[in-house]
Amino acid sequence: DTGVSQDPRHKITKRGQNVTFRCDPISEHNRLYWYRQTLGQGPEFLTYFQNEAQLEKSRLLSDRFSAERPKGSFSTLEIQRTEQGDSAMYLCASSLIRDEQFFGPGTRLTVL
Amino acid sequence: AQSVSQHNHHVILSEAASLELGCNYSYGGTVNLFWYVQYPGQHLQLLLKYFSGDPLVKGIKGFEAEFIKSKFSFNLRKPSVQWSDTAEYFCAVNGNQAGTALIFGKGTTLSVSS
């Protein structure tokens, strides 16, 4: 399968713990995006990278969130000191510049 | 602020009925428009996209959408739905340089009964 992959698919954690998610984009795609989706809502943009540069961050991305794409390939999204309000599906997408975005299966986070 | 409105939260149809899902956007510039679909248990997939040119866009599985600039709309249509079209449908928009963040509507759940 050469699509976007995400790991883990599910994560249950206790409030206050740190979590890290990984996204592997389609190999030739320059751009990588992170979105968050909660029940009954469409995906909401968090941040995106072009190669290794983080070009835009949403106001949704609080100081507890950090994302990296160190070599312009895979990306990680870390949430520190998780809160119950962080419970959501975290989606990763990738694209070529000026093209449609391809989405991965998501990581479902549950914060207890 | 940029936004996307999908008028119908939940649509229930019988097989062979015609479908139209509404989508309106608010964006101050040239737009790219998308419809994504999420089948039960699967990830978001692109149904169709509009970047420029013919405002009537044809996508996969018999879906089409029409961009009406004067109405800021990009409605999705299918003449005859099938049970397998049961899914959640999302309209999305981004700016004139495709690749920037997508703004999604809240989605419409389509249930098709056989």
Features of the shown structure:
heterodimer, A: 112 residues, mainly beta, four-stranded antiparallel β-sheet, 11 strands, 0% helix, B: 114 residues, 12 strands
Question: What does this protein structure show overall?
Answer:
The complex is a heterodimer of chains A (112) and B (114). Chain A is an all-beta fold. Helix content of chain A is 0%, strand content 50%. Chain A is globular, with a radius of gyration of 13 Å. Chain B has 114 residues and is an all-beta fold. Chain B has strands at 3-6, 10-14, 19-21, 23-26, 32-38, 45-50, 56-58, 64-68, 73-78, 87-94, 103-104, 108-113. In chain B, a hairpin with an 8-residue loop joins strand 10 and strand 11. Chain B is globular. The mean pLDDT of chain B is 92. Chains A and B meet through strand 4, strand 5, strand 9 and strand 10 of A and strand 6 and strand 11 of B.
What is the CA-based Rg of chain A, rounded? Answer: 13 Å
Query: How are helices and strands ordered from N to C of chain B?
Result: EEEEEEEEEEEE
* Low-confidence segments of chain A: none
Shape of chain A: globular
Largest sheet of chain B: 6 strands, mixed
Straight-line N-to-C gap of chain A: 33 Å
Number of strands of chain B: 12
Please report the two chains with the greatest interface, counting residues with C-beta closer than 8 angstroms to the partner's C-beta.
Answer: A-B, 27 and 22 residues
Strand content of chain B: over 45%
The topology string of helices and strands of chain A comes to EEEEEEEEEEE
Query: Regions of chain B with pLDDT < 50 over 5+ consecutive residues?
Result: none
SS summary, helix count of chain B: 0
Determine the mean pLDDT of chain B.
92
